[in-house]
Amino acid sequence: QVQLVESGGGSVQAGGSLRLSCVVSGYTSRSYCAGWFRQVPGKERERVAVIDSDGSTGYADFVKGRFTISKDNTKNTLYLQMNGLKPEDTAMYYCAADSRAVRDTVWSEYRYWGQGTQVTVSA
């Protein structure tokens, strides 16, 4: 059974940084795509950044140059380094993984999700 557990959310002031972590368990190989997604109440979940099994990455335009996604295969852990945070980055952040996914896979097609971690950025 695939399980994902996020950590690292919190409250920061605008311009600050946070690093989110997501431990992925249950996959016997590293051949899965993983990503970070976020959602605010009343809005659809949106993709923030993804990393494929070959290490290739993709970012939403609104985080390019500020956020960096990475994966430590030895620890089965996915990271999202968030710098230059803005109040509009405030959201619940979720990690997801799926061996059937590729970089362009829409969020609704990911089968495995973490419980989410809240990020709040104050002005």
> Kindly, what is the distance between the CA atoms of the first and last residues, rounded to a whole number of angstroms?
41 Å
Q: Specify the number of helices.
A: 0
Shape label: globular
Q: Give the beta-strand count.
A: 11
Q: What would you call the structural class?
A: mainly beta
Multimeric state: single chain
H and E order: EEEEEEEEEEE
Q: In brief, what are we looking at here?
A:
By secondary structure, the protein is mostly beta strands. It has strands at 3-7, 10-13, 18-25, 33-39, 46-51, 57-59, 67-72, 77-82, 91-98, 112-113, 117-122.
Your description of this structure?
The structure is a single chain. The strands form 2 sheets. Strands 2, 4, 5, 6, 9, 10 and 11 form a 7-stranded mixed β-sheet that branches. The radius of gyration is 13 Å and the shape is globular. It is mainly β and 123 residues long. Helix content is 0%, strand content 50%.
Set out the fold topology.
Elements: E1 3-7, E2 10-13, E3 18-25, E4 33-39, E5 46-51, E6 57-59, E7 67-72, E8 77-82, E9 91-98, E10 112-113, E11 117-122
Parallel strand pairs: 2-11
Antiparallel strand pairs: 1-3, 3-8, 4-5, 4-9, 5-6, 7-8, 9-10, 9-11
Features:
single chain, 123 residues, mainly beta, seven-stranded mixed β-sheet, four-stranded antiparallel β-sheet
